[in-house]
Design brief:
Layout lengths: L1 H29 L7 H12 L5 E2 L17 E2 L1 H11 L4 H11 L22 H10 L18 E6 L3 E8 L9 E5 L4 E4 L7 E5 L6
Helix pairs in contact: 1-2, 2-3
């Protein structure tokens, strides 16, 4: 009986947390008019992601190409960015892979690869950082909330060594410090954590067709 009681309590807590992040996401949505701009569409795509149940799983998966994705119920922080941009018909898998084929030497060599790997390259934060930098999307990293606009991307370091990426969205209460949508282990969440971890990058990528 004790085990069942613990399970029901844990389920209730998770249900409340899920409801809370959904409410926050919807309040954030109200702060961003749907004006057809890329930033607006990207923010709404990211906020849509908070309604999905995603188990954090960094396992290597062989993907279709282009347009390949890991199973919908799994993913990591980069997959939230990839899926949000795909909603706008921009395929980071293809774009990163093509750039890495042409300029492989410019990209990090943390993984000992001798050639691009279309299954995983776009799912690695350091590769996305280099891609956005090469696209001319880099902006200064500051601790001023007003410097970060909805639709921007930020990267940071979690636990002193783990690279992480998130998408900037409006604060649900309209405050001057934006929130982020990210998956840091509990699935896609809308949270007030922009400055919680040391920032390593700030990007405003506006791809053109």
């Amino acid at each position: 009986m004790k085990r069942r009681t613990w399970f029901l309590l844990a389920f209730a807590i998770l249900s409340v947390e899920a409801q809370s992040t959904h409410e926050q996401a919807e309040q954030s949505r109200k702060q961003m008019p749907e004006d057809g701009s890329l930033a607006s569409r990207l923010v709404h795509a990211a906020l849509d992601r908070t309604h999905q149940v995603v188990r954090y799983d960094p396992v290597y998966v062989r993907l279709d190409y282009p347009g390949g994705d890991v199973p919908a119920g799994t993913g990591v922080c980069t997959d939230e960015v990839i899926r949000s941009y795909r909603k706008l018909s921009f395929d980071l898998q293809k774009l990163v892979h093509e750039d890495m084929k042409r300029h492989f030497a410019a990209y990090p060599k943390h993984w000992g690869l001798s050639a691009p790997d279309k299954n995983i390259d776009h799912r690695r934060v350091p590769n996305l950082q280099m891609f956005f930098k090469r696209q001319g999307a880099s902006l200064p990293v500051t601790l001023n909330g007003s410097d970060y606009l909805p639709g921007d991307l930020i990267t940071c370091t979690v636990a002193g060594k783990l690279p992480h990426i998130a998408l900037v969205v409006p604060a649900p209460d309209g405050g001057s410090t934006p929130w982020i949508v990210h998956n840091i282990g509990q699935g896609p969440q809308c949270e007030n954590r922009l400055f919680e971890f040391p920032l390593t990058g700030h990007y405003r990528w506006q791809p053109r067709r």
